[in-house]
Amino acid sequence: MPAQCSAEQFLFGTVEGRAVVAAFDAGTVTSDAGALLLGATDRAIGLVRRFAACFEDGRSAENVEHTLAALVGQRVFGLALGYEDVNDHDQLRHDPVLAAITGKLAARRSDCAPLAGKSTLNRLEHAPAGEPTRYHKIGHDGAAIERLPVELFLDAHKGGKPPKRLILDLDATDDPLHGEQEGRFFHAYYDCYCYLPLYVFSGRHLLAAKLRRSNIDASAGAAAEIERIVGQIRARWPRVKILLRADSGFAREELMAWCEAHGVDYVFGLARNQRLVGAIAADSAAAELESLAHGGPARRFADFAWRTLDSWSRARRVVAKAEHLPQGANPRFIVTSLPAGAIDARTLYEDIYCARGEIENRIKEQQLDLFADRTSAATMRANQLRLWFASFAYVLLEALRRIGLRHTQFATATCGTIRLKLLKIGAQVRKSVRRIKVAMASACPYQTEYHLAYLYLKRAAF
Length: 462
Hints:
This protein is of the alpha+beta class. The chain has two domains: 29-140 and 370-460, no CATH class; 144-367, Alpha-Beta Complex (Transposase Inhibitor Protein From Tn5, Chain A, domain 1). It is 38% helix and 21% strand. It has 16 helices and 19 strands. It has helices at 35-45, 47-52, 68-80, 89-92, 96-102, 118-125, 142-155, 222-236, 253-261, 274-279, 281-294, 345-353, 358-369, 380-404, 415-423, 447-460, and strands at 9-15, 18-23, 29-30, 55-57, 138-140, 165-172, 175-176, 185-187, 192-195, 198-202, 205-210, 241-246, 265-269, 298-306, 316-325, 328-329, 332-336, 427-431, 436-440. Strands 6, 10, 11, 12, 13, 14, 15, 16 and 17 form a nine-stranded mixed β-sheet that branches. The protein has a three-stranded antiparallel β-sheet with strand order 3-18-19, with no helix packed on it. Helix 9 (253-261) links the parallel strand 12 and strand 13 (265-269). The longest helix is centred in the last third of the chain and has 25 residues, at 380-404. The radius of gyration is 26 Å and the shape is globular. 37% of the residues are buried.
């Protein structure tokens, strides 16, 4: 028989006459006990089940150890918990809490862990579009995956009145690449090789995350994406008013003409040029005189009809901010379909358009907290799947924030803060015939918020 050795102890000095001793002998312990809230959130919105339904499993049922739902849930939960690589799952596959929220405590075969390892999850991330093939037993339906975020957004309003107006924010951002990935191009503005994904948000709700090559205009494909999203929204809420909001990269004839033809309003930034600056020369001069007189910034607003020399099919309303700062002139322009009688120039610019910057915070959460920029696979198809997995991890955390944390100090916290404060909780896990007891750290300072989140999520699940 092997010798029964006691765990090695580590001595870290003394405190008030008592030795500080440590050892790896606590038994079954997890550092992610807060993930139970993720499981409760998933039960409330059905994300993993619906996401898994977008994949097709061509594996032999008698040989399947890990179901599609378990694989999808494991990857989404892992990203939400901060584990960005599939390599991390070679250790996570033994985690008792992750196994519990995934719905699988033990493997059928004695040589398997309860959850999947890196190789199995890697095959999931490389699932081809369409039906499974001989060499790729799992396939995915890209169109169904694209529809799911909008469906979850619509379901978030179930039981209540539909909103009178929705603002959809569009933005493109750089996704730097450091290898020889398919579709890589050098983007001079960002000074790196990158992808140029397109994001669409409504408030904090993610509606689309589409991976694109970077050798394109920022608005490329935006009209088709908006047409799909607006169609889904109006199928459920036919009377809702929709406003598109974006920077000057989206002020393109194709997108504006589509909006005008389909009853969708827009407010887009407009890149300045000499003609535009000349059109507000009098307002700029007045702002400069006011700035010099008071020694601080001054701004005036102009409102006029404008048409480009050849790229626009019609004249459109343009609002200009003629601003003068101590550093010099700072003119800004926006183009909109909203009539002047509906909203004045200052309110449109300051209260509506300037709020567009909030989408950049949502994209930062995607890329910094949920690792949406981990597009290191060789093919664009696999990288798009990785982007979708990160996107649904964001959707899950946003649902936790919206449902469970709405009346707490974390109601507007970032995904990274929620993870740090409420998900990363140490606990001892004890299994018996009738239950699994997760004994969380008694010193956790956010027990009140955790308890409220549990109650709200439990109510939402029914």
